[in-house]
Design a protein that fits this description.
alpha+beta; five-stranded mixed β-sheet; 15 helices; rod-shaped
């Protein structure tokens, strides 16, 4: 786009609100080191390019846009004389990243006063040293305050997750300890019973048949059918009566183990037939020996299930934290979402139904995985709070144009329309005092929009609130430094 250089008139500059308090010497300096240019409709500068100039609108019309979710979103459209944009943070030098944080367009022939970034920085440093220190203090003070509070928010979330994970780990760990202790007792009992059997009336054929029955019992435990409580109770009563009728005292005591292992009266009749010539005492001893076998197998299954549960929880925690993994990587969003749901399982509770609707064809996404897990945590936590711990949580993934979309939905009362536009503001919260910092959605916005160049929006009505996150499917190179929302917001303050 071509542009035309015009004569700079100090009196015309004085009419701009940025310069109206300057003296004649300062205005003359601006005209000497700056320039007035006429721009034809088109692009003036593009988001992400090095910030080389500071622009002040003297006449015309401009618009500012920012990339979000692969689309260019209009932030400002104005004819306001004196509106400014461009390298407005040049006076802070290398303390902040000097790139344009948005794209800037002229929509009709427009006149600008233009200062090179270095000239603008020199002007600020020489003319307004005190103001410069104040601006830097506000800029970095706000950023540091937000970072500190953001860190506290993350620590609070981590503490809550750690407590939940500890609780989840404690249950299978305690079950494994109990099962191990019981297993030790059963093995000791088997040794004692084996000694008693050695003095019984077992011939070699009977012992061999009993050993074969023991192998069958162990194998049967692994494929035992799942029974309803009513079915199990009926079978226990039936099997207990059968054992009592066949001389096994307190048969009701061992019947539940055989039922849990999937044995029925037909199998018991087989055992009785094999040992029918050995006498009642021997048969009872054999049944209790087989009961020890069944118990040890059931206990080992319980230990296996418990340790597998612990392993799954640890793997979920590693997936959630992205421990030992590169910050920027290509990942399956389903794995991130699943690990977050595991970490939040205790907070979600039993009264919330979790519905997963994952698109199996959705490709992997280049992203900062650990930071996205923080986004899912914030959104799911808000959904659970909104439902008061009771309702349906829906987690959905799908493709939308060139983006991967993740939707977190809840059946809560919804977000009132009058506050819907404010929910992403820092420190804005609808939770009672002391229960929320108002930074969860602000942090999520920064991670999705600033760090991933994506988009986050909300659609809400009573009984159906959905937060939708869109992430570009094309790889975005990791940034050298993280741009801040303050810079993006401040760039548009004069527009």
């Amino acid at each position: 786009m071509g542009n035309t250089r015009l004569i700079c008139d100090p009196n015309e500059l004085r009419k701009l609100f940025l310069f109206e308090q300057l003296d004649d010497e300062q205005l003359a300096w601006l005209c000497k080191d700056g320039r007035v240019e006429m721009f034809e409709p088109g692009l003036v500068f593009r988001e992400g390019d090095p910030a080389t100039c500071f622009y002040v609108l003297m006449d015309g019309e401009v618009r500012m846009t920012k990339m979000s979710g692969g689309e260019e979103i209009e932030l400002v459209h104005t004819e306001h004389v004196g509106s400014y944009s461009g390298a407005w943070t040049a006076y802070m030098g290398d303390k902040v990243e000097q790139t344009y944080t948005a794209s800037f367009y002229v929509t009709r022939p427009s006149k600008f006063f233009v200062l090179d970034a270095g000239t603008f920085a020199k002007m600020m440093q020489e003319w307004f040293p005190m103001a410069l220190h104040l601006l830097e203090g506000v800029f970095f003070g706000n950023r540091n305050a937000n970072e500190r509070i953001g860190q506290r928010e993350r620590l609070l979330a981590l503490g809550s997750l750690s407590a939940g994970l500890t609780h989840e780990l404690n249950n299978p760990a305690a079950a494994a300890v109990r099962a191990t202790s019981s297993l030790r007792e059963r093995v000791a009992g088997m040794r004692h019973k084996l000694k008693m059997m050695a003095h019984g009336k077992f011939n070699s054929e009977t012992l061999e048949a009993l050993a074969q029955l023991q192998e069958e019992a162990a194998a049967q435990v692994a494929k035992a059918p799942a029974l309803t409580p009513l079915e199990a109770a009926d079978r226990e009563d039936e099997l207990g009566d059968w054992l009592e009728d066949h001389g096994v005292s307190n048969g009701w005591d061992i019947a539940p183990n055989f039922v849990q292992a999937g044995f029925d009266i037909d199998w018991m009749e087989k055992v009785h037939g094999t040992l029918s010539g050995c006498g009642g005492d021997v048969f009872e001893a054999a049944m209790r020996w087989l009961n020890y076998t069944v118990e040890t197998e059931l206990l080992m299954n319980e230990i296996t299930d418990s340790t597998n549960r612990i392993s799954s929880l640890v793997n979920a925690a590693k997936q959630y934290s992205q421990m030992d993994r590169a910050p920027f990587q290509v990942v399956d969003l389903r794995e991130l979402l699943d690990s977050t749901l595991v970490m939040l399982a205790r907070k979600i509770g039993d009264d919330i139904t979790v519905v997963k609707e994952y698109d199996p064809a959705l490709q992997q996404v280049p992203c900062y995985a650990a930071e996205l897990n923080q986004v899912w945590t914030n959104l799911i936590d808000n959904a659970v709070s909104a439902m008061g711990g009771r309702g349906t949580l829906t987690v959905r993934t799908y493709r939308e144009n060139d983006c991967a979309a993740v939707e977190i939905g809840d059946t809560g009362p919804g977000i009132p329309e009058e506050i819907r536009t404010r929910i992403f503001e820092p420190f804005f919260t609808t939770k009672p005092v002391g229960e929320g910092t108002g930074l969860g959605l602000d942090i999520s916005f920064r991670i999705v929009v600033n760090k991933h160049h994506g988009d986050i929006r909300v659609e809400s009505e009573p009984g159906n609130t959905r937060f939708i996150v869109r992430l570009p499917l094309e790889a975005t190179a990791p940034e050298a430094t993280q741009s801040t929302l303050e810079a993006a917001q401040s760039t548009t303050e004069g527009l």
